[in-house]
């Protein structure tokens, strides 16, 4: 850390020699010679820029020598480049023509150098000011939900996970989020926290998204894709901006809703003299979260007879046979999805033995009465989020810019892994120092976080057990049911007498005792019971640089080269990942380097061909190093651009996938490292795949056969993928824009946390009495996994400012199942499972594959940002197909229904006050849906905002 700040200080105190200044000035108008306010003016190749005033005039200073080129861009108008020479630099005249379809975007994510988005070699999506302004979404991050092929899984009002191209996850560690070049992920937990700790909404300049492997330039973490969020440079975007937003959600919730929320953001940027600029941001959101209130009986393969089977074909699964009984008064095994403490797989159920005194309860499984999520949290769903940023920027000779920035995020939220987990006060600091020039950058940053949370389900179980043991509760339940001859509900009521009531002093005292005690420690006064709290106060340091060698090579080819170093310092105290034998924390070191070469070749007058090759080498200290090559090409024939790419890549397991351990005696995640398996007792008390246990209890496997299938912690290795993609992009008659793609991917050594059962007493016989704990063990399966998909996006200018746009994406995952010896596994009917859909019941019956992605989804949008000179509007319809979900220890297995959302916004400009008033909402019809099993159900969210942009700006 000390070296980082020293380096930053030296950069900012770098050469102080003066250089000549040129004062540029001009006027921007539309085709009717009316002045345009708010047009962005940037000197090409630099960060030097400004915004036009109400009268359309602009001025800025530069040390660049003439001639130079400036770029003028404005929402709804075609971008224009103007050459500035010695005879016009004080009277620059720019006239912008209207353009309903924006097609001349420049992106940097695809090849790490600026290029036309139409000629990028891979699929790239870009959201900028135009998309943010027209989107009905409440934030720039939420606007991603309208991008083709993107699935946002909503964990919390402030926490959404981005998923692309299959294997959707609440905690996606195959997708890389970069904010101003910094990795957004939690150092220890190993996944990005969405926008919990991102930049302020007012400071987002653009978001670029690459679906598909991007590892050749960005390293192993970008196996499934990349999102690059770029904030506004204070030299270009100056003045005071303020956004005030009020809204409401949770409508139609009876006595609970509706609930209001407020959001305020402030940004101030100022250039001081010719060289120095400062930027300050702050945003505060507070409201009520969407509530996880699915109280239906849990659909999970842990249920008896979960699959519909065909006995004549060896018990082959033909469908889902489980029919939930949602009434706890009649259902012995009622296990509510968002009811906690009644979880069959997590200590909330009692199995009456086969020799129980009364035959009515022999071999019966009875669940306790649980608590709702709101009961356990006790905060009435309140949520808050703070984001702040301060950055200093200094211009150096040679068109270089040094910057030093502090980025802060703080808030509370719920995330879903194997269980629902509550983080009451997450805090993260990122500090970055960077030096950037025309053909290079060097960057160093650190991520420091305090992430302490507690397991909601385990806490509810602990509350129940601290009041009355499971055995005692079951005895009272059984006595009431048998001797008093009452119903299941009445028996429960009898056994529940004196139960701690939510919100009572005793309930809160017990909850806080467990939630505030680490899961490695016993809770004082509770007979050796362990707490439910965990922490990830880990840190990460990252150093990287890149150099563009094109000029040095006299433009023979476009060549870039770069590298990075990274160090993780884990700090969980053994609550989330295991400790070393001496009790110290693990560290992880990684390094990588890459080179890319490209050359644009002209073939005749209309055709250009641009081949690109890139290769990267990465090494993690716990795994063998590996190369990730990529080859691509773009062929442009007039306005038609054809692209193709191939890449081989790998992914290092996250720290949690490597070292995670469950709390003593409880279920949970187990890392793939042998030390993690040892900490979970898997060497002395082996665990068995859930499907194998099912076959054993059904008589399809003998005890001897089951023992041969015990989990064996072998060499844990990296996950690998080979993928290729083709695409086409064009603009037809400046009115119809089309972007289409097709891709194929093959995964090997796929890392997935499968459900394993570990017998409670170390005896195989325990399985017959349901005496076991469920573990989610991370390991490399031997399957071959294939993902195929295609998508198309289109935008059409209808005239008079109207545009209609839409996109459709399709993807399907298939698998060839193999055992540890590489043999293809047969289904229960004896047929080999080769390239079958992972959602097919005969495949799912043999184990979870976690594809968790809808096959189909589409969006349709009608928009006009200029209904009048001040009024704009957008309406969007979104539809997402049903999807097969396999999730976690307690979540379950289910076909999640399809869902739709109708979103809209109306905006009104008030030029006098440099402001825009926006009235909008998502899911206007308030049709509740969940984007994952056990997640909060999303209803209507309605808001009114007013944004004052770049007040107090001086020319």
Automatic annotation (TrEMBL):
Q: List residues of the TonB-dependent receptor plug domain.
A: 117-225
Q: Name one GO molecular function term.
A: siderophore uptake transmembrane transporter activity
SUPFAM superfamilies named among the record's database cross-references: Carboxypeptidase regulatory domain-like, Porins
Every copy of the TonB-dependent receptor-like beta-barrel domain together lies at 408-924
Top-rank taxon: Bacteria
Membrane topology is: Multi-pass membrane protein
State what protein this is by name: TonB-dependent receptor
* Lineage, highest ranks first: Bacteria, Pseudomonadati, Bacteroidota, Cytophagia, Cytophagales
